[in-house]
Amino acid sequence: MTSRTVRKKQRSRQPERISQLTGASGRRFTEQDRLKKRELKDLDKKNKERVEELENLQQHEDELQEKTKKIKELNLSYVKILEDQAAEFTERAERERKELLQLDADHERLVVELAEELESKKEREHLLVKLQPYADIFERAAKLTKFKDAKSLADHMENLLRIRESLLQQNLQKREKYDELRKTLQSKQEQHRLMRLQKTYELSQLEVEHEKVRSEVLDWETKWNHIQETASKKTLLLGQIKMATLNLYEMTCQDKKGEEVVDINDTEKQLDMVRMFIKDTDDIVKQYQNSSQRQEGKKKDKRSFPSHHNKKASKKPLA
């Protein structure tokens, strides 16, 4: 609870207290009402003035608190700025320290390179002194040749060395290519040999299969010849049977008139006709035998018909 709220409650309670005091004094001291009312008004006025002063003080206090809050925020932002600046200064110092270390390393490297360069220069000077006699020899040799000076002779010899190196390189490349081609040829020869072995094996397998098939063909040819021979025999036998059947048919049924003419190649129907003839003849014979037992006198007349028929049948020989 804030001080402003407390003061408001006190102001709300003061009129009640004043009314209580005035009521009690009115009952006891009726003659002094005006004086007390005036005093109460003065007190009320003073109270209002104090309340206004308290409100002003409270407002001033609130303003001071607001200013204090702003000052704290400014202090915090200032501290943050100081921290950022400190971090930036630290980072810059670290970066400058690294750059300084890099400069020291570069300086040491340059010192080493300078020492190496000086050493190389000394070696070149020493080599130049050592090769000076050869330079003199080149000068004298150049005077004896068509070259103008020793440098031209040296350039010519350098060109010759480059040509020699190029020829050696070409020879080496050709040698490598030759080795590669030789390896390729060996590989192809090996592949050809393996393929030839494979084809030889396949050919042997095919020859075995060919012999097997040839044997089967011979077996089937033998069977076919046997079938043809059997068929020929069967055909010949069938022809003989047909001729015999035709002869029987002609012998038995040629005297019958009014019946359907059977085709010469219809052997089955011819056999049926012969069978019917035999059956009819058998019936006739049975009837004849029965009648012969009853009539012995007519036996000669009954026998004349079969004998006459047999004479006609004997005229055509059997096939």
From TrEMBL:
Keyword terms, alphabetized: Coiled coil
Biased composition (Basic residues): 1-12, 300-319
The protein's name in its UniProt record: Uncharacterized protein
PANTHER family: COILED-COIL DOMAIN-CONTAINING PROTEIN 42 LIKE-2-LIKE, COILED-COIL DOMAIN-CONTAINING PROTEIN 42 LIKE-2-LIKE-RELATED
Chain positions covered by the region annotation Disordered: 1-36, 287-319
Stored InterPro entries: CFAP_domain-containing (IPR051147)
Keyword Coiled coil on entry: yes
Transmembrane segments: none
Coiled coil: 37-113, 164-223
Keyword Coiled coil applies: yes
Superkingdom assignment: Eukaryota
Naturally occurring in which organism (per UniProt): Eleginops maclovinus (Patagonian blennie)
